[in-house]
């Protein structure tokens, strides 16, 4: 049985059905099974990683997909240790390309610690290091819905965004076939696109023009405070991460194609799939 943490998240909600389709038995963790809409073929279990009885949750698990909320290295140490105790044979951890590039932002540093815990726990391990997700572009939803405009910090780099379904497909492969033990895979989409190119592609999928507005970092920060009520500290953290990853986001790895035997999903495909979410609020 494969135990999936983060089963309702961006990657996990695609991973659970992919594993089930591959014939695996799946246990899916969520804090609220009633709300979670987990594939009924999976065993949904309730648990909060902050307080969970890990030995009970891990009982009978052969393999574990390790994803903790908030990039929590401490929880990953606990999960990896408990998994080893429970007789788990393979841990697959979702990390970030930030570790590959040696980034020093807090998210990459926490993932580096989590990777180390998974490598040292005892069971076989595989590390998946995706770059920036296409799903991050859902942050453009409110201004598109309100005024068909996208505001982009002028420091945002070209990015080889990856579709979360490609990450899930790689995770499913690694969890259901052998030969990936001890491997670390960097995962990106197939091409780096500037933010202007991304907005043009999205406009094409929506069938209406979008205004592309570049703004300074301080204007972008003000907008996040005014429009979304983000705390200043979270915004500074986000921009620290952006600064660290900016020189690296254009780098394309061929791992998705090598592992899956097909090119990565494109941003145009993502835009078409998600176009209905961007309908205009009149
Ligand atoms: N976004 C990117 O561009 C990017 C790039 C590279 C790597 N990553 C990494 O991808 C990972 C995904 O992060 P995300 O923020 O997008 O989250 P996510 O996986 O979309 O969602 C969070 C998941 O964690 C679960 N969860 C939250 N709190 C929990 C708790 N206390 N106990 C148990 N489960 C809990 C949620 O389940 P319930 O709500 O159902 O309990 C949900 O399934 C992160 O490690 C991030 O660093 C992201």
TrEMBL record:
Domain NAD(P)-binding: 6-176
Family annotation (Pfam families): NAD_binding_10
Residue ranges of coiled coil: none
Listed InterPro entries: Ergot_Alk_Oxidoreductase, NAD(P)-bd_dom, NAD(P)-bd_dom_sf
Superkingdom classification of source: Bacteria
Record SUPFAM superfamilies: NAD(P)-binding Rossmann-fold domains (SSF51735)
PANTHER family (alphabetical): PRESTALK A DIFFERENTIATION PROTEIN A, PTHR43162
Protein name in UniProt: NAD(P)H-binding protein
Biological source species: Amycolatopsis melonis
């Amino acid at each position: 049985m494969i135990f999936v943490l983060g089963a309702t998240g961006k990657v996990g909600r695609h991973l659970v059905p992919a594993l089930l389709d591959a014939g695996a038995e799946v246990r899916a963790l969520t804090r609220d099974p009633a709300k979670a809409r987990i594939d009924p073929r999976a065993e949904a279990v309730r648990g909060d990683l902050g307080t969970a009885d890990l030995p009970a949750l891990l009982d009978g698990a052969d393999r574990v997909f390790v994803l903790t909320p908030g990039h929590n290295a401490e929880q990953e140490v606990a999960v990896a240790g408990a998994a080893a105790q429970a007789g788990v044979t393979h841990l697959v951890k979702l990390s970030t390309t930030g570790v590959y590039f040696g980034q020093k932002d807090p998210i990459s540093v926490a993932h580096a610690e989590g990777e180390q815990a998974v490598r040292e726990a005892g069971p076989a391990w595989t590390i998946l290091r995706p770059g920036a997700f296409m799903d991050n572009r859902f942050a453009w939803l409110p201004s598109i819905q309100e005024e068909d405009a996208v505001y982009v910090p002028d420091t945002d780099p070209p990015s080889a965004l990856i579709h979360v379904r490609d990450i899930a497909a790689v995770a499913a492969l690694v969890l259901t076939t052998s030969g990936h033990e001890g491997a670390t895979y960097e995962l990106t989409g197939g091409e780096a696109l500037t933010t202007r190119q991304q907005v043009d592609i999205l406009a094409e999928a929506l069938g209406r023009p979008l205004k592309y507005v570049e703004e300074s970092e301080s204007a972008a920060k003000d907008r996040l405070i005014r429009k979304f009520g983000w705390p200043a500290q979270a915004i500074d953290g986000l921009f620290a991460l952006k600064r660290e990853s900016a020189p690296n986001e254009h780098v394309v790895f061929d791992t998705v194609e090598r592992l899956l035997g097909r090119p990565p999903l494109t941003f145009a495909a993502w835009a078409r799939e998600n176009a209905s979410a961007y309908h205009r609020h009149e």
